[in-house]
Amino acid sequence: MDDMDIREILKYLPHRYPFLLVDRVVSYEAGKDIVVLKNVTINEPFFSGHFPHYPVMPGVLIVEALAQAAAILSLRTEGITNDSDSVYYFAGIDGVRFKKPVVPGDQLILKVKIDQQRKGIWKYTARAEVDDKLVTEAKLMCTAKAI
After folding, report:
1. Is the model's pTM score more than 0.90?
2. Is 50 a residue of the active site?
């Protein structure tokens, strides 16, 4: 069980504002799983256009937040910090389901579990929750590539 603040997160992810979509690691177990939180505020740049009359966090950004949590899990498991020599990419996304809108004021809890790791490909089961209710679920596949 390991907690990480934003300064530690920035050591693992290359993302920065406005595309950094995680705020804190609540728990982490190397090679197994991670729980990350994202505080959703009205100040997010996407809310001005999605949708002005009823601000909703775009589903693709929820999936991106889950991928960022997965990247922290894998990179930290491997002991690899952010550098300019490689990038962590999506290799596939399956079974994405959006169950409930995420709106300003919500605290998104991102739960990612490693299902398999082989030949540089990581597979995960990922879910996002608000108030202990499922809002998004997906199977993710990611890989690191040298640039």
Report:
1. yes
2. yes
Integer Cα distance of 88 and 102 in angstroms: 26
Closest CA to 70 of 84, 85, 91: 91
Q: ω before 51 within 30° of 0 (cis)? A: yes
**Tokens for 99?**
């169950």
The tokens 């991102």 sit on which residue? 110
| Cβ-contact 110, 22 below 8 angstroms | yes
Please count the residues of the chain.
Answer: 147
Return the higher-pLDDT residue of 59 and 85: 59
Residue of 15, 24, 50, 127 marked catalytic: 50
Q: 6-146: what fold?
A: Thiol Ester Dehydrase; Chain A (3.10.129)
Phi, psi dihedrals of residue 122, rounded to the nearest 5°: -110, 135
Buried b (16+ CB within 10 A) or exposed e, 2-40: eebeeeebeebbebeeeebbbbebbebeeeebbbbbbeb
